[in-house]
Amino acid sequence: MSPRWEPNPDIRRGRSVVHSLHAHLVFIPRYRRGVFTDELLVRCEEIMRDVCGDFGAELREFNGEADHVHLLVHYPPKVALARLVGSLKGVSARRLRQEFPAHTNRYLWGEHFWSPSYFAASVGGAPLAVVKEYIENQKRPS
């Protein structure tokens, strides 16, 4: 008897696409100020999980330190990553400032919570060298 095939949870299917897109994102607060406490990190994760859900994405991992946060997001191809990042940063900044005004105002001044820049890397699947070799070895039409 052959083992039962188990679907890969990282592979999603849409009407006309099969995909597995993951991004590693890193956000830092304005001026890289150490604003995050454990309580703020927990709330930030909750907010970002909700935002991802609104986009049909999934926040797979979240963690951070006093001066930055890391996210691993599984997202569909219809989502522009820059738009998702904008919402993640915008919604979290607004809610964290509303819910923790005394703390956030002590570390951050002005209207901004996050630095305007961010780090994004695609992750998952085969290493680039393996994909490159696979493509190079495809048979060319005669």
From TrEMBL:
Transposase IS200-like domain ranges (all copies): 18-138
SMART domains registered for this protein in UniProt: Y1_Tnp (SM01321)
Listed SUPFAM superfamilies: Transposase IS200-like
Domain of life: Bacteria
Classification via Pfam families: Y1_Tnp (PF01797)
InterPro entries in the record: Transposase_17 (IPR002686), Transposase_17_sf (IPR036515)
Listed name of the protein: IS200/IS605 family transposase
